[in-house]
Amino acid sequence: MNQKMRVDTIVISILFAALCIASIARSASSLSKDPFLGISPEDVKYYKSSSEIKCKDGSRKFSKAQLNDDFCDCPDGTDEPGTSACPNGKFYCQNAGHIPKVVFSSRVNDGICDCCDGSDENDGKVKCQNTCWEAGKVARDKLKKKIATYQEGVTLRKREIEKAKAAIAKDEAELTKLKNEEKVLKDIVQQLREKKEQIEKAEEKEHLEKEKKEKERKEAEQAVVHEKGEDEAKKKDESDEKSTESVHDDIIGTTDDSSSNQELAAEVGNDDTSEKDQSSATAADQHAVDKKEKSPPEDNENSAFVPEVVHDA
Question: What is the pTM of this model?
Fold first, then answer.
């Protein structure tokens, strides 16, 4: 590829040199005969448009015969681009093989070669050598270097484009791979999230069951304690009732014994009254003492009541 580029560069240089040489020869042969001397290639069409040519400032018109006739017809120098007749005119140097140049028309035919092709000195008084080829050599070398640099840049650009394409393809493949992995990871995350929710629900259910069992256990314990308290209170009430009934029975028995002793004493007779009264009193006292010892200690009032009844009897 580099060899082909060198060949192309050489061909271009040869063609460019041939064109320059032909232009120089043509300009040298027709310098004095060219009616459009000093006119730039862009303005040639303007001067060829019609038989009567307007001054560029629009002040007047002039014919083609008046063009470069060494007489200033237009104040702006439109009719004398190739002579020094108009002070405001401009002369265009073609400088084939080098860079074109524009000079003031006052420098035309002044005896000094201002254009490298010598076109500004066309009256034959001064012979100017065409130095455009030598002067343009530096410019041509720069142009060649510029072309070579451009071609090298094009080659590097193609290489970079190929590298970029490969990198883009690689990145696209990596992106596709990452997208697939992302999809797989999303599925895994979704599954883990569902499992987590299931575990949390199971833990919550277990926790609620534990709380329920703990509540039932406490309620059962409270019920048992309550039942025990009721049984103890019931037993205590029954015990109190039994104690009260025993004391009551003892009092009734004591009263019956006292009545029997009185009737016995009345039946014995008056003869042994003193002896029998003493004997009955002794027996009644002894019986009251025995009952007192057998009766519960808490019923003190009833116990105290017994000797009084016996004593009265």
Answer: 0.40
